[in-house]
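Morning F.,

Quick status update on the modeling queue. The single chain you submitted on Monday has been processed. Sequence for confirmation:
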Amino acid sequence: MAYTGIIMFILMILALSLFVFGKQVVLKKVGFISAIFFFLVTILANIFASEQKNELINHDNAIIMAPSVTVKSTPNQSGTDLFILHEGRKVMIKDNTMKEWKEIKLEDGNVGWYLPVLLKSFKT
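C-alpha cells below.
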C-alpha cells in the first residue's frame, strides 16, 4: 500500500502540472480531474498503509511457550499466585508498559501478571 501511495502522489503531481501548464482547455480539465482522483487514492493508500504498519507492530495476543507458568496478582515475585497456565494457552496482553512484567487477560476474564520467559506474541 505504501508503494501505491507514492505512485499515486507522483501521478497527482504530473496531473497538476498538466493542469497548470496545459494550453488547451481539455488538457486542463483532464489534469484537474485526474489530480483530484489521484489525491483521493493517495489519501486512502496512506490510511491503509498506516493500518498495515499497526498490524505488524502492535501485538496484543500471545501464546504461552513455557511448560507451565504461575500468574501473579501483582507485578512482583512476592505477589499472590492466582492461577497456573500451561504451554499453548492463548492470552491477551492488557499492559505491555513494564519492561519485565506483562498484565494478561484470559478468554474467561481472569486477569493477572506474568513474567514472560517464553511468550510468543502475535496479532490476530
